[in-house]
Design brief:
By secondary structure, the protein is an alpha+beta fold. The chain has 3 helices and 11 strands, in the order E-E-E-H-E-H-E-E-E-E-H-E-E-E.
Length: 184
């Protein structure tokens, strides 16, 4: 079994090829390991942890929401969410495709991570802050939709952890071999 832990940079697709009319950066610009594929995806405008593997069962365990594998994100949001906004995220938020599962969330100090290229637009008149948010489901653009639903749109989204794997020390575009998950 081969497992790669990759720090996907901003503006990179979570796939090895791009059929679009405009050439975009893909995983093949960073990873030259045959036979591995991403376990789930991370939107082009999101950054951070992507686990790749050659094991189909492990891919399914990571990507399929029924397995409830925890995924932790560092989220820079517009504004300063109060206790009520955080409580809504913790209880679950009503979205167009139904209510989300409860999230673990709290405000954190700005994390010591790499600068984004291009940087998030800074506005003097609008404060921002960082949240650490953990989900156990995986809807399309879920974190962004949840923070927007409580009045605090996402400015930057970095996936930091998936189950037992974390970014720990990987710069954007870098990868390392990952350890198989321990049996439950």
């Amino acid at each position: 079994m081969r497992i790669l832990v990759f720090n996907k940079p901003y503006d990179v697709l979570s796939q090895f090829t791009d059929r679009g009319t405009v050439a975009r950066r893909t995983l093949s610009d960073h990873i030259d390991v045959p036979g591995v594929y991403p376990a789930g995806r991370l939107d082009r405008d999101s950054e951070g942890l992507l686990v790749l593997t050659d094991d189909g069962a492990l891919q399914a365990r990571i990507a399929n929401p029924r397995h409830k594998m925890a995924k932790t994100y560092l989220v820079q949001v517009e504004g300063l969410p109060d206790a009520a906004a955080l409580a809504r995220l913790q209880r679950g938020v009503d979205l167009k495709d139904g209510r989300t599962q409860p999230a673990e969330v709290w405000r954190i100090d700005p994390p010591d991570i790499w600068p984004r290229d291009p940087p998030v637009r800074f506005r003097k008149s609008v404060p921002d802050c960082w949240l650490e948010l953990t989900l156990r489901e995986g809807r399309n653009r879920q974190v962004r939709r949840m923070t927007a639903a409580v009045g605090h749109p996402t400015l930057r989204l970095v996936r930091w952890r998936i189950g037992p794997w974390a970014l720990d020390g990987l710069a954007p575009g870098e990868w390392r071999d990952g350890e198989p998950p321990r049996a439950r």
